[in-house]
Amino acid sequence: MRANKFIGVKTTGIYCLPSCPARAPLPQNIVYFKTASQAEDNGFRPCKRCFPDFPYGKWVDEGASVLLMPPKEFDFSQCLKFLTRSQLEPCHVVENNSIYKLERFEGIPILLKIQRYKKYIYIDFLTPRPKKYIRAMIAKYVWNWFDLDTDLRPFYRMARDDPVLKNVTQDLYGLRILTISDLFEAVCWAIIGQQINLAFAYTLKKRFVESFGEKFTFDKKHYYLFPTPQVISRKTITDIKRLQFTGKKSEYIIELAQKMNNGELTKKRLLQHDGLESARKELMSLHGVGKWTADYVSLRCLKDPTAFPVADVGLQNAVKLQLGLSKKPTSEDINRYSAGWQNWQAYATFYLWASLVNGLLPESIF
């Protein structure tokens, strides 16, 4: 039996599962791949009939809605707590234990309602029902937003006896890293949050999104898409400073937008680096992006399990509280405490950030 799980068709540039219901290609037109990402790195796009990049087994298509089947180590309510850490968040709304989020798929803005239903994550479409292949894209997007591919069992085993993590992992069991899939949004948010508190960061984000993002109205309520690089690349420093951004942050965000708009910087290329450390170095070559910002983007957007912003004030405060220290630990202290966190630094950081949500003076943007 072949170890390769995916079939690329050279004549169409599409890759499929072996079980695809489409007509079988000629043998001379077939190339095999071990992973979906390997196929896509070679220029193949996923089939719209068998969904090889997000196969059935993780989701159920009900036509008018989609059901996701998350792993046991997932708690929707813990994720909601994190998503509601500020009432000023402009890119999603949480009401009655449901998340309302506007996203664009294949150029079409679609308003999603996401909630827990028994053991499933239930996704309803509040805009006209999208085509089946777009429903598959939506299922994959929400799955990745909640980072449901990560097996948390080794993390919990490691944390069980760790002095810093043992209590937070029990209290927040089932929490997932809430990713930011769009690179432009992730870097912008990190830049916005530099050297200011959480409340003011959200104030600036709300002004930025409502001034330059696309708006959709449903049931007399407004929902927004994060502004695109195309839009921001045409703005002036004065346009953004008017929102109470500093001149430097305005400059950094416009330059970032221009680089992404002309293809100089892409998420795909960052993920193709020979190791995520080199991706961080490319991020740090951008004006306004230092080590903290690069680590933050690596954690929230690039899904680097080793991303570890040790100088983050919120992280330091969380460790101080967990260990009952009299003063904030230094970066060197954090590195010492985290000696056993190999390949789980990102999750440890996220859990410690989340431990601050309930009124413990969060000082980073997390």
Summary keywords:
366 residues, 16 helices, globular, TATA-Binding Protein, six-stranded antiparallel beta sheet, DNA Methylphosphotriester Repair Domain, Endonuclease Iii, domain 2, alpha+beta, 15% strand, 4 domains
Verbal overview:
With about 375 residues, the chain is of the alpha+beta class. The chain folds into 4 domains: about 5-45, DNA Methylphosphotriester Repair Domain; about 60-150, 2-Layer Sandwich (TATA-Binding Protein), CATH 3.30.310.20; about 150-175 and about 310-360, Endonuclease Iii, domain 2, CATH 1.10.1670; about 180-205 and about 225-300, Hypothetical protein, domain 2 (Endonuclease III, domain 1, Orthogonal Bundle). It is built from 16 helices and 12 strands. The strands form 3 sheets. It has a 6-stranded antiparallel sheet, covered by helices on one side. Helix 6 (about 185-190) runs antiparallel to helix 10, helix 6 crosses helix 13 and helix 12 (about 275-285) crosses helix 13. The termini are far apart. About 35% of the residues are buried.
